[in-house]
TrEMBL record:
Family matches, as InterPro entries: CBS_dom, CBS_dom_sf, Diverse_CBS-Domain, DRTGG, HotDog_dom_sf, Ser_kin/Pase_Hpr-like_N_sf, Thioestr_dom, WH-like_DNA-bd_sf
Superkingdom of this protein's organism: Bacteria
CBS domain span: 190-253, 256-314
Tagged with keyword Disulfide bond: no
Species for this entry: Planococcus halocryophilus
Protein name in the entry: CBS domain-containing protein
Any Pfam family matching the protein: 4HBT
Chain segments annotated as coiled-coil in the UniProt record: none
UniProt xrefs under SMART domains: CBS
Nucleotide-binding recorded as keyword: no
Keywords attached to this entry: CBS domain
Amino acid sequence: MATKHEQILAYIETLAVGEKISVRRIAKDLQVSEGTAYRAIKEAETKRLVSTIERVGTIRIERKKKENIERLTYAEIVNIVDGQVLGGRAGLHKSLNKFVIGAMQLEDMMRYTEAGNLLIVGNRYKAHEYALRAGAAVLVTGGFEAADQVKKLADEFELPVISTSYDTFTVATMINRAIYDQLIKKEILLIEDILIPLEVTAHLNLKEPISRYHGLNEETTHGGFPVVDHTNKLVGIITSRDVIGHSAKELVEKVMTKDPITVSMQTSVAAAGHRMIWEGIDLLPVADDHGKLKGVISRQDVLKAIQTAQRQPQQGETIDDIIKSQLHQQISDKLILEFRVTPQMTNAYGSISHAAYTMILTEAASAILKTKNRKDSVLENASIYFLKPVQLDALVLVRPQILDISRKSAKVDVEVSLENEIVGKAMLTFQLLDR
């Protein structure tokens, strides 16, 4: 039976997009405490089922598919620009496909403004009205108000008119930054993207006999299975090591490993892969915040996802991407990489930051491992020494060297030099993945 928390989330999903909800209403309709209702609404906000806006309240929004994650809703725009909704609140749940800056003649402005757009403009009241009639929402900059006629049209067409105290340039920069952040999120693989759902996941009940494990083992050839109780709550995991020497009639709960390591739907695939390597496990159960089993992922699932993932068009670059793009290989018998320190890599003192320095060393070590056909590796430990600061615009040479390599691990020494003088050293240990 579903918990009250799960019942509330299921109830919120049944609400019409655009409908306003409140803690008090949820508590009354489902006969739960206001504290329980509040916690469930906050989780719904994390899952992007609802959006809470100051002075407006919480409204049901459409859950975005990952391919459309960069399309912001008008409700999100309000929060990004610290805005105030002047009219058209019923349309806050809608998504915009682009924004138009109204820094041109009215006729030209309207030529670029279409349905689903957001017109960013100052106190040009005719432009407000024309945009609404064209099917676009309006963001009024500079803290200006909108005419009463415009507010009525906004309510009639269910298109928001939002006011913000920021200027047009600042607002455009803020929205661009939000879209850019969403593009970076779009590229990151999460467990929910590769999950084998519970409906098709082979699992055992703790009251079943070990003979049931043997049956599933023969049927699927998998060596381990999650164990659940009568409510589908994850209580353990059972593997071939657990059943050795036990009778087929014994119950699963007697031999299973209790309190197994789990991940959530929002855990990144990379983080899950690292965890599996460090813990030496091949199967990870996926559970929600209440311990209910949602499915499983295997080490093979993780490797396949990482190896086949490709950068989609119009993706945002992270700082790591920028740093990697600065690394260039010199033409030489030995692997020597060079990079130039850019402003993004520096700290407050104008020298290379610890994070950027670590990333460069790790990338250099990974590059030399690839020359040995070991393309899949995970950094396990690093001892890094800053001998001298490396300043902005400095052209630095990085020389990685493999000290020891086996089937499962490798040790790499990395030397960093500037103008023939050593400025840094590092010793890095990697776990090597089976391909």
